[in-house]
Amino acid sequence: MHKYFIKKEKRFWTNFVNNLMSQIFFLSAFIAVVSLFLITIYVFYNGIQIFKTVPVKDFIFGSEWEPVTRKLFGIFPMIITSFYVTIGALILSAPLGIACAVFLAEIAPLYAQQIIRPAVQLLAGIPSVIFGLFGLAFIVPLIQTFTEVAGLSILAAIIILSIMILPTIISISEDAIRAVPKELKESSIALGTTKWQTIYGAILPASSSGLMTATALSLGRAFGEAMAVKMIIGNTQTMPDFSPDTLFGLLSLARTLTTNIIGDIEYAVPGPHLQSLFATGAILFVFIILTNTVYYLFLKKAYGVRRAQ
Amino acid sequence: MKIEFEKGNVAKIQMEQNIALGTLWFSGWLIVAVLIFIIGYIFYFGLPTALSFQYLFTPPEGGRYDTGGILYQSIATLYLIFGAILVAAPIGIFAAIYLTEYAPQNTITKLIGFAIENLAGIPSIIYGLFGLAFFVIFLKFEYSLFAGALTVAIMVLPVIIRTSEEALLSVPQRLRQSSLALGVNKWQTISNVVLPSAFPGILTGILLSIGRIIGESAILILAAGGSITAMPSLLSSDYPFFLPDSARTLAVHLYYQATSYDSRGKAFATGVVLIFIILFLNFSINQISKSYRKRFVR
After folding, report:
1. Which residue among A279, B206, B259, B286 is the one 20 to 30 A from A147 at the CA level?
2. Are A288 and B275 within 8 A, CB to CB?
């Protein structure tokens, strides 16, 4: 234990330190606000510059991206691809993730929980470049053997992304399912229902807002993922071919908003090209803000659900 | 819901129940299978190279054909972790202290909470663009580990704040009250009583952030560049004085290796190194939180 002196000058000093520290704590917390402010300002300010030379309509709805040779900056194909890939990943991932969450929260015996939960945690920690490498070395050749195409494709990106967002869906859904009041489950079981009827008829509806939150959040993550997608989607700047020949675009090469930035940054020179990449980031940011807002709206309704990590 | 106790109906419900529960069991174990398959796949192709110490401890060589090792990349990764944690840990922990011990219920506190939530949701590519615009171009740090470390520090800030907050909140209120009852002021209570009790939880947050930093690649391509020509230096006499060199971390190196066909095989070895570090971090986090739980839950 420390010695606490009651001498006057000592007391002045301890009071001074006490006040100083409370100020430092406040400033540290406020850095979060400053950071968010600066990030928003810098990305949007640098992005808006492009609209001095390229009209907003041509940028967002233009379908050709030839920034160096023809000075064409149309990101419409990338917006479409981003949505396509994200929604595809959610369709694969959400049912599986929610099923896994139900299993963990309601059915799994202790030993299964002790294996599956760390596995989910580990899956969340694996770097995205490793998912990209796995996709490039395993998924892409696999697609290649079953079809006549290069293998680098939207389908590969969807498969890898759906694995990457599983941990988010599982952990938040599990929290939501565990937050369902015990009375609700017990009343359902007291009516003579089976376990599955209780899950289906009582637990899932009661936790639906939490499950929506999980989906919205993982949507944001899939939309913003850059590296893994860049490695396996081919990154061609044309509109994906949505004809039945390529399984409605699934086997088509494409480029998303995020991979546009990563792919072009290596040779973009300051000027319209670099500005257009910031503008791409700004558009991406707008979509992320929208999904975050949806998340906030659902979060207010869902009880006991907190953002994982 | 209508429940009829006819024999056929009961059998049908029973079958439905079996199928449904079977599917749930299957989906739970499928996750484990996917994880084991991915890690096994990377290890199968990468372990032989990664276990040769020559690969780990020789500098990169041969450019695109990648005949050397990953010495510089490992050092760059260590420097990046060091730089980013040095910035993010104090700020994050102090912010968490403010939010748990001081913050009044007002607009500013709400604003801070809002900012933290949103920072956690921003994808790393946006952080990368910010790092490029602000640290690299505006503050003239050039492509450097310093610019990368500062950007990454902002990225992990929400992780550290949230985990530290939870750790601080789990310190029983009576510990604070007993300390204050001794006539000690708030800062002395925090530094002598609250922080030591919350330390394991805070450490968990820092380890979690280290995991995120090691896996990060998009930010570093945009803010730290990808040079592997020389050993990155820690200090320099030129501006910026700390971590001034452009360098490639292991994750970024893996990206370049994997996307160039000539060095794809080496990418697996780098992947093995990354997975080993992540496994070790996860193991440590679980050990800490296990011993931690025993302390307060009685």
Report:
1. B259
2. no
